[in-house]
Amino acid sequence: MPLISFAPDSGVWLLSTPRTSYALRIDGTGAPCHLAWGPRLTLAEAGDLATPPVPADSSFEGRPPSGEELPVDGGTRYGPPSLQVRFADGTRAFEWEATGHRVLEAAPGESELVLEFRDRHYALAVALHYRVHDDCDVIERWTVLHNTGDETVVLQRADSAAWTLPPRDDYRLSHVTGQWAAESQLHRERLAFGETVLTSRRGVTSHHANPWVMLDAGDATEDHGQVWSAALAWSGSWRVTVQRTPDGRAGLTGGAGHEGTALPLAPGEEFTAPRFAGLHTDGGFGAASRAWHAHVLAHVLPHPEEVRPVLYNSWEATGFDVDEAGQKALAGRAAALGVELYVMDDGWFGARRSDRAGLGDWSPSPDRFPDGLAPLVREVHRLGMRFGLWVEPEMVNPDSDLYRLHPDWVLHFPHRARTELRNQLVLNFARHDVADWAYGWLTRLVADHGIDFLKWDMNRAFSEAGWPDRPDGADRLWTEYTRNLYAVIDRLRADHPGLRIETCSGGGGRVDLGILSRTDQAWASDNTDAADRVSIQHGYGQIYPARTMAAWVTDVPNQFTARSVPLRFRFHVAMAGVLGIGGDLGRWTDGELAEGAALVAEYKRVRHLVQHGVLHRPRGPVDDGPTAVQYTAPDRSEALLLVWRRAPRRGRPHLPLRLAGLDPDARYRDARTGTVHHAKVLTGYGLMTELPPGDWSSTAVHLVREPEAHPHA
């Protein structure tokens, strides 16, 4: 079956993925309308769904509030619009007129459908894009708007896409909420009737919500049931509106920007909305996560095939107190542990002695690095490690040479205070001179010092989001800031193909499919407490793969929670992602250093499973029982099971954990104990894991398929 097919008699378009179908058509009014999204259909079967609409019960109903591919503001539509425009004469309603279509072969194994429209009277063209792949069930959608006239059109809302779900007796919404140091807290709750809005008004993806949703009929589990999901690839402010209607339907619309913002589209100008990808599965929440992970690895990350190195970061060891001698000493200890990437964090530049000064002055402090960074970089490379550096290019301290020279470069309004958060202001990356300045010093820094890795941080949200130099600046900056941010990173990576980048925004404040398409990993949270990280990582992994999730082992008592847990437990939690170490190695005992080195070596033996394996969640986070994650090689030759338990509970049995995704006719050997297990026993009856006694116990079980299967043994 082709990826995209069309039935001229019914006017039905059918998009086919390996396991799902998506069908739509243009109705008699010229509007693009949804028909189906779910299990596979043939083109003839999809045609059965192209039935005339049921007449409204009364004049108060209007057009059904869900069911259009891009609901517009106009006519008898009363649901949340995906497209709201204001033409020069004040008219706001949009009326569809189809003008054509194109089917493109975007790349091998990819096809793209473009449906082209215009307004029936005004000079505005709209193109709906759909991209499908032959190796995954994710459908990528976006909208392109083009002002073909000679007067400005104002886009009051220009979403990427709307998604419609079939009627069900009930619906449940899954999403994450949180705050700084408590990101990605997973919530599953009955979807309320009316409209549920998830948004960020902060200019960044945010710690408090993330631009993805999952919907099910209330009966899905980790392993069973239909789940529909969508995720927005955008790193600025965003909004997703989920709607449940009295007729049993649910739908959602989403895109860049939040309420109260508008984008002027000048004559000849074009706006391309960010991609809003969606998928359907009948395999429950676990299958939805695995489908997203496969999509990110195959079609989002710039270097998905790489194995991410074990990292050391200096921040929790030194804070702002960094100098050449101290960093060299730390680097030596890190190398002895088996670290492969050494990252020097904040405090290396300008007058940076605290968070009150120096941001914007990106030259090594001469009193701390009298010969620049070169001697330290050489030493790190000599030790066999790559060298990384913390930067925060989008920020400036008022106490800096840059701000004194360019006070107009920050977001601000005339006659309004410039609110400082963390003693800093936001540089206006929407300005091309600011973006060019950032690109210039970054590319010189990387080239002059042989930098292998950048930890790109962003430590505050927007405020006074104005651009007084431009009459329409306050409207344009929300979009152009993020576009220019992307462009700077893209130019930097083009200059330095070997450079790798971690996205960070005070922890997990900028994690989304947009930023992951141009970075290599993400800092999920500033909170490194291993107990808290279990739930943070659980929510993160609903959409984003472990290959992207940086996770550190730090010292105890933890600086956020004052909690103390064993080093083994801290390592096992961090081993569920891209392992990093952030403790003060100068204070680790010989015993801790030896244990740490052994655990680093253990991680290196299994990280190919964590970073490129298939995730199953045998047991999610619970307060009084173990939590477990499983990573299985794509060819099912190996599996890793990580198990964590806060505390044993008297009277609660220690139950076996049922594994998944194994070769059913194989036997698997425990690489540590040598015990051999039948796969059907592991998946049908479970594995009784051996956890050390006491609180904060954990284990890692590495299973390797025996060379020959013994199905009758």
What features would you describe in this structure?
By secondary structure, this protein is an alpha+beta fold. The protein has 13 helices and 37 strands. Strands 6, 7, 8, 9, 12, 13, 15, 16, 20 and 21 form a ten-stranded antiparallel sheet that branches. Strand 17 and strand 18 form a beta hairpin. Helix 4 runs parallel beside helix 5 and helix 11 runs parallel beside helix 12. It is globular. The two termini are 42 Å apart.
Gist of the model:
The protein is of the alpha+beta class and 713 residues long.
List keywords for this structure.
eight-stranded parallel beta barrel, disordered C terminus, alpha+beta
How are the SSEs placed, and which strands pair?
Elements lengths: L3 E4 L4 E5 L3 E7 L5 E8 L3 H5 L35 E4 L9 E12 L2 E10 L4 E10 L5 E9 L5 E6 L2 E5 L6 E6 L7 E6 L3 E7 L11 E5 L10 E6 L5 E7 L5 E7 L6 E3 L4 E3 L3 E6 L2 H16 L11 E3 L1 H4 L5 H14 L3 E4 L29 H9 L3 E6 L3 E2 L4 H5 L19 E2 L5 H18 L3 E4 L16 H23 L4 E4 L9 H4 L4 E3 L6 H11 L8 E5 L13 H8 L3 E4 L8 H23 L1 E6 L7 E6 L5 E8 L21 E4 L5 E3 H6 L12 E9 L8
Parallel strand pairs: 22-23, 22-31, 23-24, 24-27, 27-28, 28-29, 29-30, 30-31
Antiparallel strand pairs: 1-2, 2-3, 3-4, 5-10, 6-7, 7-8, 8-9, 9-20, 9-21, 10-19, 11-18, 12-13, 12-15, 14-17, 15-16, 16-21, 17-18, 25-26, 32-33, 33-34, 34-37, 35-36, 35-37
